Amino acid sequence: MTSELDRLVAVMARLRGPGGCPWDAEQTHASLVRYLIEETAELVDAIETGDPATMREELGDVLYQVLFHADLAAATPGEGFTIEDVARDTAAKMVGRHPHVFGDAEAADADAVVEVWEEQKRREKADRVSVLDGVPMQMPSLLLAEKLVGRAARAGLELRPLAGERPEAVDAEEEEEAALGDALLDTVIDAAARGLDAERALRGAVRRLADRIRETESRPRP
What we know:
By secondary structure, the chain is mainly α. The protein has 10 helices and no strands. α8 crosses α9. The protein starts with a helix and ends with a helix. It comes from Amnibacterium endophyticum. This is MazG family protein.
């Protein structure tokens, strides 16, 4: 019996195969990046607004992007991997990084699990020489800042907010980088120290602002 996942893979093959969709056929990994970002953002929005129906739809859209890239790879000389290869590699990775479930390691709580995960990851990526290796620099700025704050601690670099250490007068051309940028980084450092999610907090504030804007727009204009 064919599973629904198999059916979706078949739909992708039909769309990208001979006589299929011209638009799908001409796409590349690079051309699809914008759609992957957009679909991921829509999924995050559905999760944070607690909308299960939309979440289900957006999970499908993100899954479709994964299948699209795998189908492209299967047809691209020099790549040659399929969705089955992706699934196999991911299953092996998850088993390897959970020795407390699939092996003899022990992890009594979530913090211990993170330690086990990081240790397994270090073994897998033994060729990395910097704590910054593997960090995607295209992440949203706040998420990237939070990631780097964590990596700085692993490198032994103690970060403290710079408040009070900046010069009171800043040249206008340096205002954005020296003042605003440092202030934002201070907020991230402080949030990380308190175990808070600065990216999620900002999205929540932006969502509340959007609600205020809609409320304002709904009022009768004089």
